[in-house]
Amino acid sequence: MHMFRRLLIASAAFALVCSAAHAQDLKTAEALRDKALRDYLAWDITEDLTTNIGPRLVGSPAMAKAKDWSVAKFKALGFTNIKVDEFAKPSWSRGEESAELVAPYAMKLGAVGLGRTVSTPAGGIEAEVALFKTFADMMAAPDGALKGKIVVITQPMVRTQNGAGYGAAGVSRRIGPVEAAKRGAVAMLIRSISTSDSTVPHTGGTASGEGVVTIPAAAIGVPEAEQLERLAARKVPMRVKLKLESSVNPNNVAWNISGDIKGSEKPDEVIVIGGHLDSWDVGTGALDDATGIAITTAAAKLIGDLPKRPKRTIRVVMWGSEESGGSSEAYLAANKDALSTMVLAGESDTGADRIYSLQVPAGSLDHPVVKAAASVLAPLKIYVDRTPAAGAGADVSGIERAGVPVINLNQDASRYFDYHHTMDDTLDKVRPAELAQNVAAWTSLVYLVADSDVDFRALKPAAPAAK
Amino acid sequence: MHMFRRLLIASAAFALVCSAAHAQDLKTAEALRDKALRDYLAWDITEDLTTNIGPRLVGSPAMAKAKDWSVAKFKALGFTNIKVDEFAKPSWSRGEESAELVAPYAMKLGAVGLGRTVSTPAGGIEAEVALFKTFADMMAAPDGALKGKIVVITQPMVRTQNGAGYGAAGVSRRIGPVEAAKRGAVAMLIRSISTSDSTVPHTGGTASGEGVVTIPAAAIGVPEAEQLERLAARKVPMRVKLKLESSVNPNNVAWNISGDIKGSEKPDEVIVIGGHLDSWDVGTGALDDATGIAITTAAAKLIGDLPKRPKRTIRVVMWGSEESGGSSEAYLAANKDALSTMVLAGESDTGADRIYSLQVPAGSLDHPVVKAAASVLAPLKIYVDRTPAAGAGADVSGIERAGVPVINLNQDASRYFDYHHTMDDTLDKVRPAELAQNVAAWTSLVYLVADSDVDFRALKPAAPAAK
């Protein structure tokens, strides 16, 4: 037989086998997807975690209970290789807090201390307000210009589907107090990094810790920020009184908890998915991120229930310190050999509203597994974004930086920042049908990749040669 | 000339005169309406009152400033016969407040003391929770059955266009603490009387004062109420700690402030409209009821600016104690002769969303002035409800009971109880176009009545004869 012809036949036979395998996979993925749409496991997990454990700040008694809850949940759902990786994580906790306008009239301000803020003196700080409508305006003030003032920044956050408004507005929260301190301010209030019109303010981390020179800082409600802006526009002198209490435990520990759905053929090739178990102390961390835990755990469990499990292992990691940072670094430190086994990683951490797009690793857009995923996800109203996946959640960022390919299943964030990091991040904000759509997407996508041989690292396009 | 024919001619001539007058009135009313739709006075008044005065609780320094603001506003807008009627009104004020779940885990509860609640002991009250899903369920508990407990009632409020859900759910707030006290409870929390899903709780009056046996009581946020309900459903024992501080000033005074747009022909026939100047201490009382003040003041001012003023006088009363009660009784006491001069009364006190229907006094549906009003209001998407007007606002209820006919311009309350009596009742919740629609309706309707001779009392159908 002519060599070329033989190759052709072999190739066709291979394609047939492949396409038969693909067709079977596609059918299974579609069945999983449709089952997930009517499955209530993710809802039940979310309800259980938020109701029975409540808020889960790193260092709180609730966080320790949450760790035990995770182990029990993995066991109950049939996960194996359940691991609890403990790591050192200094913790911060909130005491009494209050803020009020004292002049030109008395008005209580909805206020919450930024995460890891320093305390005010016990009696609080009362001072004149220096108000800036943007972070940039404050940055333009020279060193010392804000001496003795309480700085207020009222820059609003823009509502966007992809959440990009958060990064833009968040700079006031992240480094505002440090920059205000440089300029002589004694305390700082920022307009809540929020898309809502609510008085319920958003907390969230601000730069703090050893060597950081900063001042007490809190977020205030959106209506209060606008009220102060209107008074400032009238040149009415304002005084605010702020009281913040907090404490730090430098010797705290946190935990990453993981469980596996073991692969049937290549168990040492691992797809890592998950959400974060910790939350801020306000609300019950329903959207941030009980639902991420629930979506990925339910997806893995649904796959694990298949009569024939996919080839690769699916590992769910319930990350133990997203809001306080350091989870993935701790994971890699505790699992030195894991890096080479991870073929893909992803995190669900933008609430539970609909997923609207998928991003895959660079170079993989034309791979059959991605084509199959596109086909399975299309009826869920998810399109494939041709921009490569990147920045797949704070908890897998360390893994991503270490070279593991990542996927993004992008959730609609239009509503997320109405509730994020507030007392209003509670179960009632989770929409069951949208939660199920998330599970359906994760389940079918992860199944397809887990039962394939796709090697995203090998598909990565070579970097352009240096000139 | 035959007598009948003469009568016919006279009658026709009269009808011609009338219809010419009516046609002119209709044209003026339409022009006023259309001008009002593009007028920003009501917005400016709302912004001014909420920004420069802030929250206006009876007895607060801000309320005294608000009284002066009212006088100045009437003067600036050309009102005459400006009167300040002072009356005795005991006042209540709020101190520090907090509520937290302490078992099964620590969770801060969004809480606000009910208006006129008594204080807890200085250290607060901590007790086991007895949770009831409805007020009726609690009422079924026998005397003494709740000994030592903190009662929680989680009955939700139903969202309705006409606000009827408020009355139905509000009973827990109004008399719940008294009824819980009878049954031995030591404190009470109610699910916020709210249509929102927010943690921001609603305050509002509860029975208190001399001879009333009651207990400290607060409202908690909707998500917290639902969280406690879920824990109760799991039979998890709960403990709550509640701290409420308040004080009462029995010797306080309040003020009704009024100003007139004097009628051109029959100045002693008076149409009384208005809103209430006071508010709760949370938020800035924007929807409740700065907008009512603004709508009615702007309407009267627009009419006052006409080249030819209507026959009758339009009086705007800025009622001084709606949330604490007693305004109209005080008004009648201070203006003993006013009752006979009042031809119609109305109040705007359900926020600033669109008006959707008009109710007129019994027997007047077929009067030409009501027909004209129906025609002018139809393009504003307001229909005439055939049920007679009644219960036209707490502040005119005393006047209404004394026999003065009232009108209702019914505002869409679908959204009102998301914000009402909360820190979220702020200027940003006011929609300028809907506010202007309100002004347009009041302006055109009040003008038509003010320039007419309609006597609503005379039109009132006779009560059915007693058998």
From TrEMBL, chains A, B:
This protein's GO CC annotations: extracellular region; lysosome
Primary localisation category: endoplasmic reticulum
Domain Peptidase M28 intervals: 256-442
Gene3D superfamilies noted in UniProt: 3.50.30.30, Zn peptidases
Q: Which InterPro entries match?
A: CPQ, Peptidase_M28
One GO biological process from the UniProt record? proteolysis
Q: What keywords are annotated for this sequence in UniProt?
A: Aminopeptidase, Carboxypeptidase, Endoplasmic reticulum, Glycoprotein, Golgi apparatus, Hydrolase, Lysosome, Metal-binding, Metalloprotease, Protease, Secreted, Signal, Zinc, Zymogen
Pfam family for this entry, one? Peptidase_M28
> Any signal peptide, and if so, which residues?
1-23
Q: Which GO terms describe its molecular function?
A: aminopeptidase activity; carboxypeptidase activity; metal ion binding; metallodipeptidase activity
Tell where it localizes. Endoplasmic reticulum; Golgi apparatus; Lysosome; Secreted
The record's subunit annotation is:
Homodimer. The monomeric form is inactive while the homodimer is active.
Q: What is this protein called?
A: Carboxypeptidase Q
Organism per entry: Caulobacter vibrioides (strain NA1000 / CB15N)
